[in-house]
Specification:
The chain has 4 helices and 6 strands. The protein has about 210 residues and is α+β, with helices and mostly antiparallel strands. The protein has a 4-stranded mixed beta sheet. β1 (about 50-60) and β2 (about 65-75) form a beta hairpin.
Length: about 210
């Protein structure tokens, strides 16, 4: 005959096993529901890529100190600030190639961001919606840029001219380096002043 305390212990263990089984079943069911919900919320289509458009780059050439327009087909986003950064990124990619006529290392990562603001100081009635572009350059780009008044000036003017060519509302450009004001590009070109894009134009054999 089974002692009474053993029967009680058996019943307790049986109840505990049933409770544990129910809890495990509920946990398994909830995990399955979360998995199904995650699959339903996953994207069914690949993210859209910005359509390719024609962009005009004012490319510098150290051999004759000129700025020459080049038309390139680029995927350009709709947002004007992102659009400006994409265009300048392509310009910097050209400068980072070994056979570049104007060499500056860094590529598209040379430009962190481009901010577009109302150009409050521009009172020209022909440009009532004029914008100021604030170009935030990467510190690594500035640290490795070749030093020299001509090469630095070509870089700055090519940036200003490229912005003007693709965003006509941009009439002024200022520069930051990693979000902070910086005195020069590489010892010569002034980064504390405001540049007027209307003064930058393609050149043919002339000093920019």
């Amino acid at each position: 005959m089974i002692p009474r305390y053993q029967r009680i212990l058996f019943i307790v263990l049986l109840v505990a096993s049933l409770v544990m089984a129910v809890v495990l079943w509920q946990l398994r069911d909830r995990a399955h529901q979360r998995l199904v919900a995650g699959e339903d919320s996953a994207p069914t289509r690949a993210p859209q890529v910005a359509p390719a458009e024609q962009a005009t780059l004012l490319v510098a050439n150290d051999a004759d100190n000129t700025l020459q327009p080049q038309v390139r087909s680029l995927p350009l986003p709709a947002d004007p600030g992102a659009r400006a950064r994409a265009v300048l990124g392509k310009l910097m990619d050209l400068y980072s190639t070994p056979d570049a006529g104007h060499f500056a290392p860094g590529g598209s990562n040379s430009v962190n961001r481009v901010f577009l603001l109302p150009a409050q100081g521009d009172r020209d009635p022909q440009h009532p919606d004029a914008q100021l572009a604030v170009v935030d350059l990467a510190g690594s780009f500035v640290a490795t840029h070749p030093s020299g008044i001509e090469t630095e000036t070509l870089t700055v003017l090519s940036i200003c001219g490229t912005l003007r060519a693709n965003l006509p509302r941009v009439t002024r450009v200022r520069f930051l380096v990693d979000g902070q004001q910086h005195p020069t590009l590489a010892g010569h070109a002034d980064l504390t002043r405001t540049y007027l894009t209307t003064e930058v134009a393609p050149t043919e054999g002339k000093h920019p």
